[in-house]
Amino acid sequence: MKALADLVIELDCPREELVVLVERRWVLPLQQNGDYIFSEADAARARMILELRRDCAIDDEAMGVVLDLLDKLYGVRRQMRDLLGAVAELPEAQRDMLLKRIGGIPKDGPDEG
């Protein structure tokens, strides 16, 4: 966990710029004793936003759309990881049948095709 002042130093950006990210709810740190406390995920998200602004010239209007799409993408990736984990736990015959059905392996078997 990092205080706002620490993150300002780490990211080498003005304090006001980080506060704007919080005010726009693009980054959601905890508040403790009147200060923002950033988790590692919060710090990484702030870094990503600053890089998108700087390197890709994404303006504030587009940033909300970009962040929404990235959040959805990460959500789908988590769901896919969970699904693949559940498939891996199936008995081999059921797993193979499921993978054939969804196109994961050729219908004629893994060695043919």
How does this model look, in words?
By secondary structure, the protein is mostly helical. The chain has 2 domains: 1-57, Orthogonal Bundle (Multidrug-efflux Transporter Regulator, Chain: A, Domain 2); 59-106, no CATH class. The protein is 65% helix and 8% strand. The protein contains 5 helices and 3 strands. It has helices at residues 4-11, 15-23, 40-56, 60-88, 92-102, and strands spanning 2-3, 30-32, 35-38. A 3-stranded antiparallel beta sheet has the order 1-3-2. A hairpin with a 2-residue loop joins strand 2 (30-32) and strand 3 (35-38). 10% of the residues are buried.
Cα distance spanning the termini:
52 Å
- Across the major sheet, the strand order is 1-3-2
- How many individual domains? 2
Mean pLDDT equals 91
| CATH architecture group name of the largest domain | Orthogonal Bundle
Predict the CATH topology of the largest domain: Multidrug-efflux Transporter Regulator, Chain: A, Domain 2
**Beta fraction of the residues?**
5-15%
The main β sheet shows up as: 3 strands, antiparallel
Helix/sheet category: mainly alpha
Helical content band: 55-70%
* Overall outline: elongated
- The oligomeric state of the chains shown is single chain
